[in-house]
Amino acid sequence: MHSNSFHCSLSLSLYSSTMDRAHSRRHVASMKQSLFDQGYLDEQFIQLEELQDEANPNFVEEIVTLYYRDSSRLISNLENTLERKPLDFNKLDTIMHQFKGSSSSIGAKKVKAECTLFREYCSAGNAEGCRRSFQQMKKEYAALRKKLETYFHLARQAGPLETAFRPK
Amino acid sequence: MTAMGNNKISALIVDDDSIIRKIHKTMLERLFNMEARTAKDGKEAVDLCRSGAKFDVIFMDREMPIMDGVEATKELRAMGVKSMIVGISASASGEDFVAAGSNHCFEKPLDLAKVELVLGLHPNFST
């Protein structure tokens, strides 16, 4: 009798845990879909996920962490350069080119778009445009960081998926 | 995919962005089973080859400090380096890369399809 009730409660516990996991995975999938639907991420993010495997289940999170660490230096450089008068548009463009490349490599779609706009303002010698698009870029950069932190937290809780999947 | 003789294909990734170096290295190693090394600018790539390192394919970013990709390509060819050189550029135009001696030039980013295309075109690589 005791053995039966033990097995019964173990089965229930496993079932509950499996359902929780399935629910978590649906939540992760839904959040990822939303990040793509809202234009925060593009296909490049999927390409990164395809590089994850059992031996490296957190590869994308590592890359994104590296991105936010390294790019903060570029943002500081941009801020300092934007304070100088007159503006050195060539230098601004060079720094932003590098920042755009990094952002593009993690699939940061909105950030990349703002970088492109900034570079257009640089080409046109439009100081006010540069400052405006820089502020907008920082907003997108911060917003993406927050969303990805939540996404990775959920993904770690849900556990690894068999394969990277493309959003609809 | 292997080079002739069934050894792993060796690749050099030359890019000043550490994130891009890490992504490309991982992609080549995990998805194409290559041996991949990295260099952070054209000069480092040239010095590596000058020291005797040999690569089947070199993926060369265009814009880098100290020595850019086009300049590095010219130097490598002048040294007699026979590796396949693939220029990676932010813009679609790559005539200067090819004129410098690269075999191909692609627009960023380097992705699976482009790597497959390049390896498929090379007579020494088999699937």
From TrEMBL, chain A:
<keyword id="KW-0932">Cytokinin signaling pathway</keyword>
<dbReference type="GO" id="GO:0005829">
    <property type="term" value="C:cytosol"/>
</dbReference>
<protein>
    <recommendedName>
        <fullName>Histidine-containing phosphotransfer protein</fullName>
    </recommendedName>
</protein>
<dbReference type="GO" id="GO:0005634">
    <property type="term" value="C:nucleus"/>
</dbReference>
<keyword id="KW-0597">Phosphoprotein</keyword>
<dbReference type="InterPro" id="IPR036641">
    <property type="entry name" value="HPT_dom_sf"/>
</dbReference>
<dbReference type="GO" id="GO:0009736">
    <property type="term" value="P:cytokinin-activated signaling pathway"/>
</dbReference>
<comment type="function">
    <text>Functions as a two-component phosphorelay mediators between cytokinin sensor histidine kinases and response regulators (B-type ARRs). Plays an important role in propagating cytokinin signal transduction.</text>
</comment>
<keyword id="KW-0902">Two-component regulatory system</keyword>
<dbReference type="GO" id="GO:0000160">
    <property type="term" value="P:phosphorelay signal transduction system"/>
</dbReference>
<feature type="modified residue" description="Phosphohistidine">
    <location>
        <position position="97"/>
    </location>
</feature>
<dbReference type="GO" id="GO:0043424">
    <property type="term" value="F:protein histidine kinase binding"/>
</dbReference>
<dbReference type="Pfam" id="PF01627">
    <property type="entry name" value="Hpt"/>
</dbReference>
<dbReference type="InterPro" id="IPR008207">
    <property type="entry name" value="Sig_transdc_His_kin_Hpt_dom"/>
</dbReference>
<feature type="domain" description="HPt">
    <location>
        <begin position="56"/>
        <end position="151"/>
    </location>
</feature>
<dbReference type="GO" id="GO:0009927">
    <property type="term" value="F:histidine phosphotransfer kinase activity"/>
</dbReference>
<dbReference type="InterPro" id="IPR045871">
    <property type="entry name" value="AHP1-5/YPD1"/>
</dbReference>
TrEMBL record, chain B:
<dbReference type="InterPro" id="IPR011006">
    <property type="entry name" value="CheY-like_superfamily"/>
</dbReference>
<keyword id="KW-0597">Phosphoprotein</keyword>
<dbReference type="InterPro" id="IPR052048">
    <property type="entry name" value="ST_Response_Regulator"/>
</dbReference>
<feature type="domain" description="Response regulatory">
    <location>
        <begin position="10"/>
        <end position="123"/>
    </location>
</feature>
<dbReference type="Pfam" id="PF00072">
    <property type="entry name" value="Response_reg"/>
</dbReference>
<dbReference type="InterPro" id="IPR001789">
    <property type="entry name" value="Sig_transdc_resp-reg_receiver"/>
</dbReference>
<feature type="modified residue" description="4-aspartylphosphate">
    <location>
        <position position="61"/>
    </location>
</feature>
<protein>
    <recommendedName>
        <fullName>Response regulatory domain-containing protein</fullName>
    </recommendedName>
</protein>
